[in-house]
Amino acid sequence: MKKLIVAAFALMSIKASAQYVQGPVTDPAEWVNPLMGTDSRGELSNGNTYPSIALPWGMNFWTPQTGGMGDGWQYTYGSSRIRGLKQTHQPSPWMNDYGMFSLMPVTGAPKFNEKERASWFSHKAEVVKPYYYSVYLADHNVTAELTPTERAASFRFTFPKTDKAYVVVDAFDRGSYIKVIPSERKVIGYSTRNSGGVTKNFRNYFVIIFDKDFDQSFAWKDGKEEKNPEQTGNHTGAVVGFKTANGEQVHAKVASSFISFEQAETNLKEIGNDNFETVKNKAKDTWNKTLGKIAVEGGTVDQVRTFYSALYRMLFFPLKLYEKDAKGNIVHYSPYTGKVTPGYMFAGTGFWDTFRAQYPFLNLVFPSINKEMQEGLINDYKEGGWLPEWSNPGYQNIMVGNNSASVVADAYLKGLRGYDIETLYEAMIKGANNEGPIDAVGRRGAKYYTTLGYVPYNVGINENAARTLEYAYDDFTIWKLAIALKRPAAEIETYAKRCQNYRNLFDPETKLMRGKNEDGKFQAPFNPLKWGDAFTEGNSWHYTWSVFHDIQGLQDLMGGRESFVRMLDSVFIMAPDFDDSYYGGVIHEIREMQIANMGQYAHGNQPIQHMIYLYNYAGEPWKTQYWVREVMNRLYKATPDGYCGDEDNGQTSAWYVFSALGFYPVCPGTDQYVLGAPLFKKATLHLENGKTFTITAPANSEQNRYVKAVQFNGKALDKNWISHFDVMAGGKMNVNMSATPEKTRGTTKAAYPYSFSVNK
Asked: Which domain of life is it from (predicted)?
């Protein structure tokens, strides 16, 4: 406690006495605010996050549950009551959860209905860390604490003096099982609740072992106490009771498995004989080691907090669906076959969001975990027949595109090896040329796309222009991988040609992308401010820039450099007007664009997030530098309302983390990071290959946001990009910052980043 008090005063001193944090951050887990983004609701997202108490990419997360059973908004900052401490695997409130159950300490009466057992709480009596959670439950006079491992967790409940102390175990509805075993101080059960993407035999088995004999116990089913301690039904649970002295602590060790009760017992060995504090310290060490791969210094207190809070959000999804059996072998429950199968499996990400920056970040800083993820994708294909585009834990029928191609290609092209890339390539080709069993697997409209060169507007396929643009980019990544794998020349040329299909939707009259009918005529009428319809959660002003691989080609279509820059400028100059008629009302993404007050720039959704960096392709990189800093300053903060839209499984956070370092992967599938301007005076990347890459900007400040000159390993860098492989080789990039734009650097075509039309 004394150390905590000293640390708190030290932090207050930093804030009060210095604008910038001096020296490198050495305890990054303490800078994270897991509540960032939790002040959200369906009609307005400030992140749509929940506090995830877990280890990086852990199979199970834990969160305090304020929402009702089945509510995707399972924790919201404005709530005042907690219903339980819930195991969760939820990637998004829109996708909801699967395999959940909860524990809730109560006193006075063994109330197990979630509303009746709920307790008032205050954020003033809540401690939220990545590795630890504590809350005082006022109605029960109990302090509940938890700390995680990858597949297990340790709980500590501090009770008052009472003969009526209880822990309620809730296995949730839609089919569950519970069994109380007093002789072993144990409760076991399983939950089958899910949101699709699983087989009929799906179960999340759990085991809970207490360190104190039960004074009383019973099982309950469908709202009624039952005499039989073993129950199967729609909604089951258990209550175990204790007599406690004032301040007495009751501990519980909890583990779960998607495979069996026996495997859950094996997973419980992650805790072993460790006491609560040991588990907590190990969890904190894991977080500090993982977050510490990037050490920043010379930022403000708020900037450091926001950076590590965003980095924390990037280290969860996709989560590990695999387990280690009693012999230490990697095995997993397959959401496609329902069988237990050897090998890796991951779940819970939408590639429509995360291909853009989240996966490129893994390739840079955490390639070993992405290698496991690539092996998991192989198993997705072998067991399900397709690569997923959204998994939760199996295929989900949501969003558009075939961006698994980008995720696969970018990993291999950036040097990941040691897995079956040929099978992944086979899966990519299948997905690129066929419609799947559901719309969001393979390519909806594939026959139109491959014959006409676009998905028509008038053939009953929604969001057709968005599909076309994303398919064209995905074909580019297939082309790049096909070259690397030395595929036949005719095959390579097919994808080189198809990656230019974006041209088929460019309307020279408006200089924007526009839906096109099957007969070759553009859709009419056309309102470029109309959200949805031909586009996905955006309008033409957002999606026109989705030519990641050929910005020069897009620039040429728009009439050249000056016209292209004017179009970029217009995004910020225009009013945030919109047409919501496709949706029949204002969706939250529209509202978030409105209130951001940045014109048509809708950073709260993914399609336009790279657009700011495109000034580098047109000789005006200082505008990128200005707008990157504006977005970081205006739209991100380590507070409950700290995001400007859905965080989306690490993508919106990845934009911030990359941008704070000073570069961004505009086009995954190439080795280039397009330059912006660093946020910190110094940032050090500790790479997995043992190398260190350091970005220094000693003159950086709020006023000095422009790049005057760049040196890379001691030599002047005139290009507007750096290579992934140069970063991986280690070294130093020094950025000379200025308060005024430098309009002579990076202005020639030789400085521009990759474009297919120029660099093929």
From this structure: Bacteria
Contacts of residue 273, Cβ cutoff 8 Å, sequence gap at least 6: none
pLDDT digits (tens, 9 = 90+) for 645-679: 999 999 999 999 999 999 999 999 999 999 999 99
Give every CB contact of residue 333 below 8 A, 6+ residues apart in sequence: 202, 258, 259, 321, 339, 340, 341, 345
Round the CA-based radius of gyration of the chain to a whole number and report it. 26
| Bridge partners for 333 per DSSP | 340
Number of H helices, E strands in the chain: 21, 36
Tokens standing for 205? 């088995």
DSSP strands (E only) in 500-650: 506-507, 512-513
- Cα 694 to Cα 315: distance, rounded to the nearest angstrom: 21
Q: How far apart are CA 16 and CA 59, in angstroms?
A: 40
- As given in the structure block, the two tokens for residue 52 are 């995830």
Q: How many CB atoms lie within 10 A of CB 3?
A: 7
Cβ atoms of 707 and 675 within 8 Å: the answer is yes
Q: Which residues make Cβ contacts (< 8 Å) with residue 365, sequence separation at least 6?
A: 293, 294, 685, 687, 688
Structure confidence at residue 6 (pLDDT): 39
Phi and psi angles of residue 330, each rounded to the nearest 5 degrees, phi first: -80, 120
Closest C-alpha among 136, 159, 133, 184 to residue 250: 159
Q: What is the pLDDT of residues 542-552, one digit of tens each?
A: 999 999 999 99
**Peptide bond before 525: cis, by omega within 30 degrees of 0?**
yes
Residues of the chain short of pLDDT 50, as ranges, are 1-18
Rounded to whole angstroms, the Cα distance separating 16 from 687 reads 34
What sections of 269-366 are H helices per DSSP?
Answer: 276-291, 301-313, 351-354, 358-365
Task: Return d(Cα 480, Cα 482) in angstroms, integer.
Answer: 5
pLDDT of residue 497: 98
The per-residue DSSP string of 232-292 comes to EESSEEEEEEEEE-TT-EEEEEEEEESS-HHHHHHHHTTTTT--HHHHHHHHHHHHHHHHT
- Distance from CA of residue 667 to its chain's centroid? 19
Q: What is the distance between the alpha carbons of residues 520 and 169, in angstroms, rounded to a whole number?
A: 61
For the chain, the average pLDDT equals 96
Q: State the pLDDT at residue 11.
A: 42
Tokens of 34: 């897991």
The alpha helices in 336-463, defined as continuous H runs, are 351-354, 358-365, 367-384, 404-413, 421-433, 446-452
pLDDT of residue 2: 40
Contact between 146 and 205 under an 8 Å Cβ cutoff? The reply is no
Find the DSSP H helices in 118-259.
none
